Amino acid sequence: MSARVNLGQLVIRNWPIKLAAMFFAIMLYVAVAAQQPLSQTFAMRLAVVIPPGRTVRQQPAGVTVVITGTGSEILKLRSFPRVIRKVIPDTFSTSLWRTQLTAADIELPKGIGVQIADIRPRDVEILLDSVGHKDVRIFPRVKVEAESGYVVRGLSITPSLAHLVGPENSLAKVDSVTTLPTVLSSVNGPFFQTVPIDTAPLGVVRISPKSVRMAGEVTAIIERSIAGVPIATAASGFTGFGLTPERVAVTVRGPESRVNLLTRDSVRVVAHLVGKAGPGGYARLTVSAPPGITAHAVPDSVGLKRKTGRG
What we know:
Elements: H1 2-12, H2 15-34, E1 37-49, E2 56-58, E3 63-70, H3 71-75, E4 83-87, E5 96-100, E6 114-120, E7 123-128, E8 132-139, E9 142-146, E10 150-158, E11 161-166, H4 168-171, E12 176-178, E13 182-187, E14 191-196, E15 206-208, E16 211-233, E17 241-244, E18 247-255, H5 256-259, E19 268-274, E20 282-288, E21 294-298, E22 301-306
Parallel strand pairs: 1-4, 8-12, 9-13, 16-19
Antiparallel strand pairs: 1-3, 2-7, 3-6, 5-7, 8-11, 10-16, 11-15, 14-16, 16-18, 17-22, 18-21, 19-20, 20-22
């Protein structure tokens, strides 16, 4: 009986200290266990964003992801989104889309010390419905307003063709596309502008690119005079009469780079008889010039003189 009392006293002696020691031993075990490397497998759902107007003919299977880290870090993954998101480009025009999953596709919470150890399967195939594709011309709806004293010399668009992808019946309705209406004001030199393509009329049809690059230049308008241009006569009516003067100056106006290259041979002055030939008669002058050049004769009319016997 005395031995049992002594054993009971031994068990309950200093029990608060013994209980505390047991508690700290358990906590130490938990702390050490939490720092041990662990791996855990998570079932992930593959969510694929497809181009507008297309449908998935075969839904993708699930994905298994193995994540490694310490026990304490693994516990932080209890609420992370178990979804892998992939986007199929709008310009994709075939039926079978293939992609390879990487660790970057897994959206892990920031600040957690874990690593992606494995992804199964890595290679994924998505089967879509079939579509058609075609290339169409792009027409610019761009208005260039040059500063006073300048004129637009050239306008280019890059690229000039757009690639369309969509249902065959929708593609058949599209022959060309245009840019959005755009105005470039007060232009006085070379210009470059990115202009969006108007996609509103396309509906479910996808287009690439979605914008084009406009480029062009303006040049100064100048005016100069070309002296000594000979006058030609139009039709009949001038028999026995000559023109006085027989040569005139021609004032030309247009882009500087073109006007500076003009010579007497670049323009043609023609006399048109007004009324009947005779004393006091005259002829009106017209001038033909290259496209984009305006020209007029100075003076704009000439008199008539009777030819002598030697003329």
